[in-house]
Amino acid sequence: MTENTLTRRVVIGLISTTALGLTLGAQAEAPFAIKVWKDPNCGCCIGWAEHLGRNGFVVTVTDTAAMQEVKARLGVPSELASCHTAEVGGYVIEGHVPAHAIKRLIAEKSSGRGLAVPGMPIGSPGMEGGTPETYNVILFGQKPSQSFGHYKGDQPV
Fold it and tell me: Rounded to whole angstroms, what are the CA distances from 92 to 1, 15, 73, 109?
């Protein structure tokens, strides 16, 4: 084999390896499809959906006046209810849950039905404005429900 042939093979091998690495990297960062149900008159729900979009989610929003039926069908406990409900990766998401927590839930393949942020904490995604509150993200669907993390704004604390 000549030196030029060897060099070409090394270069082709490096290009192939780099291309494979880029492909795998793209797969690791593939967007998550999330389906959101919200009341047609709720503006903060759109803010939350936009937060998800900025964080790599592909968001589909459905307006419905039948939010209680959606929550019941998806098994959202009434004490954890908020203004919008979503499904992603086999999980249920209730309320202003930060994208960071949703990604962690999916990556860890956490047990439980889903995550919830009860109420509408100031500063949570979609509820920006005012002085941000620290709030809990709750993992539900197992007995008892448990804290999945503490957040201020969209960041863990």
Answer: 60, 41, 11, 13
